[in-house]
Amino acid sequence: MLLEVSKLTSAYAGLVAISDISLQVAEGEIVVVAGANGAGKSTLLQSMIGMVKPRSGQVSFAGERIEALAGHHIAARGLAFVPESKRLFPRLSVADNLRLGSYLHRKKADREAPLEMVFQLFPRLKERLAQRAETLSGGEQQMLAISRALMTRPRMLMLDEPSQGIMPKLVDEIFDAVLAIRASGVTVLLVEQRLAESLQIAERAYVLQTGRVILSGSAAEVRSNPEVRRAYLGI
Ligand code: ATP
C-alpha cells in the first residue's frame, strides 16, 4: 500500500470529529472518501498530514510514518495536498503561483517539466499566466491549486472537495483532470460530496458518517448499496 491510515482518531476541544478510521490506498488507484457536511472528511485529510494533531492512530506513506512530520517534509516525500480553501497567493500571478509549487526542485529543468502536463490538463491556465490568481473564477482557482500541487511532482495527490462551489461545466473538467492525473502515474485520494460522479472515476470508496467509516468497498459495491442509493444517489 502506498498510503495506510490505521485507527486514526482526532478531536477538537474534546469533541471527537473522526473516530478509529482505517483506510488504504494502493499505488495507481483513485480512492474517494465521501460523506455529508460535517462527516469528518476534511478532518481526516488534515489529520493525515499533521495539520490536525491526531489523538491516536498512525499514517504511513510509502512505508514511513508521516502524521507528525512538518508539511514540507511530507511534500518532499511525494504527497501533495490541495485543501478546500486552496491557499493560493491571490496577489501573485498564475505563473508565480505555479512557480511556488516547484520550489522542491533545484534544477530548472525539473521545476519546469510538470508545466507541460499542467497546460495540457488545463489549457485555460496557460492563457491566463500573467493574470493575478484573485481574478480567476472559482473553477479556475481550483485548477490552479491542483496544478500548483502537481508542480511538486507528487506520487500521490489528496484533493479536498475540488468540485465545491464551481460551475457544473468546470466540475466535469476537474473530474476529467483527475483521471488524466492518474493516467500520468499519480495516485489520487479524492474527498467529495458528489458521490455519483466520484464513483464513476474511482476504483474504491469509503463513506463517512459522523466521523466513522460506515461503508467501504469497490465503486460498484458502494454504488449498489441500498443506503448509499437512498441517501447519496437519490435513487
Ligand atoms: P464539510 O463537507 O462541510 O467540509 P467535513 O466532512 O469535511 O465537512 P469536517 O470539516 O472534518 O467535516 O468536520 C467534522 C466535525 O468537526 C464537524 O462537527 C465540525 O464542526 C468539527 N470541526 C471541524 N473543524 C473544527 C475546528 N477547527 N474546531 C472545532 N470543531 C471543528
Automatic annotation (TrEMBL):
<dbReference type="GO" id="GO:0005524">
    <property type="term" value="F:ATP binding"/>
</dbReference>
<dbReference type="InterPro" id="IPR017871">
    <property type="entry name" value="ABC_transporter-like_CS"/>
</dbReference>
<dbReference type="Pfam" id="PF12399">
    <property type="entry name" value="BCA_ABC_TP_C"/>
</dbReference>
<protein>
    <submittedName>
        <fullName>ATP-binding cassette domain-containing protein</fullName>
    </submittedName>
</protein>
<dbReference type="InterPro" id="IPR052156">
    <property type="entry name" value="BCAA_Transport_ATP-bd_LivF"/>
</dbReference>
<dbReference type="GO" id="GO:0016887">
    <property type="term" value="F:ATP hydrolysis activity"/>
</dbReference>
<dbReference type="InterPro" id="IPR003593">
    <property type="entry name" value="AAA+_ATPase"/>
</dbReference>
<comment type="similarity">
    <text>Belongs to the ABC transporter superfamily.</text>
</comment>
<dbReference type="InterPro" id="IPR003439">
    <property type="entry name" value="ABC_transporter-like_ATP-bd"/>
</dbReference>
<keyword id="KW-1003">Cell membrane</keyword>
<keyword id="KW-0547">Nucleotide-binding</keyword>
<keyword id="KW-0472">Membrane</keyword>
<dbReference type="InterPro" id="IPR032823">
    <property type="entry name" value="BCA_ABC_TP_C"/>
</dbReference>
<dbReference type="Pfam" id="PF00005">
    <property type="entry name" value="ABC_tran"/>
</dbReference>
<dbReference type="GO" id="GO:0015807">
    <property type="term" value="P:L-amino acid transport"/>
</dbReference>
<dbReference type="InterPro" id="IPR027417">
    <property type="entry name" value="P-loop_NTPase"/>
</dbReference>
<dbReference type="GO" id="GO:0015658">
    <property type="term" value="F:branched-chain amino acid transmembrane transporter activity"/>
</dbReference>
<keyword id="KW-0029">Amino-acid transport</keyword>
<keyword id="KW-0813">Transport</keyword>
<keyword id="KW-0067">ATP-binding</keyword>
<feature type="domain" description="ABC transporter">
    <location>
        <begin position="3"/>
        <end position="235"/>
    </location>
</feature>
